[in-house]
Amino acid sequence: MHHSYLDKYARRDSPMHRLNARTKLLLFTSLVVFVAAVPRPGLVVSAVLALSVFTFGAIAKIPISYLIIRSAVIIPFTGFAVLSFALTMTEGEMYWQWGPFALTSEGIGRSAYLLLRAWMAVSFMILLINTTPFNQLVNALRCFRIPSIFVLLLSFFYRYLYLLWDEAERMQRARNLRYFGGFWKKQAALIGNMVTSLFIKSYERAERAQLAMQSRGWDGRLRYARIESLRGADIFTLVISGAGIVILWVIQVL
Known about the structure:
This protein is mostly helical. The protein has helices at about 15-20, 20-35, 45-60, 65-70, 75-90, 105-130, 135-145, 150-180, 185-215, 230-254; strands at about 95-100, 100-105. The protein has two domains: about 15-145 and about 230-254, no CATH class; about 150-215, no CATH class. It contains ten helices and two strands; from the N terminus they run H-H-H-H-H-E-E-H-H-H-H-H. Helix 2 packs antiparallel against helix 6, helix 2 (about 20-35) runs parallel beside helix 10 (about 230-254) and helix 3 (about 45-60) runs parallel beside helix 6 (about 105-130). The longest helix has about 30 residues, at about 185-215. The radius of gyration is 23 Å and the shape is flat. It starts with 14 loop residues before the first helix and ends with a helix.
């Protein structure tokens, strides 16, 4: 099976990849919090944050096309909120109105800012995942005292996600080989049976994995590799990025 992995570029060699996982986790998480905390970033702050997304991507040697396609996942989730902002705001210059719906300059502006902020937050997380191997990211989470149960569930989710993906692709291939057309009602029922079968197979696979782990001495705790200490490049990156975030905050407040 060939998958488009979530961390397709995580094991490349670049200045971003060579940074400590804790540095990258703190850097990108701080940027996401900053994007979420600023109620309405100005033009300068928005331009700097958007430019930083592409700058980090270029330093990490991640194709811009990959970054844009991956970040498009926000469209289904933020689309309704963007439309509601655009059609329900009455402040500003009126461009169009139909009953309770109106299109104003204030609504368009807020919708654009909402979509931009969501895109930047998702892009920063994509950069984090694609510059940090998963095992290093788990170690970094442990260093920041993230609850062990959350780290454990995240590890299992990552490990078995692609196994379930394989199973779903095999079921879809079998359906396509046996499908001779029909009404959408029949196809919907078939898809429902496939989802049910996939759920049952997932449960059975999880049960077999648990029994196999227990037979090998699994005690419910994850074993972690030794954590590397921060280097000069990590400290320099944290200082510069922290100063940049503070400067952007001051610009936004002023």
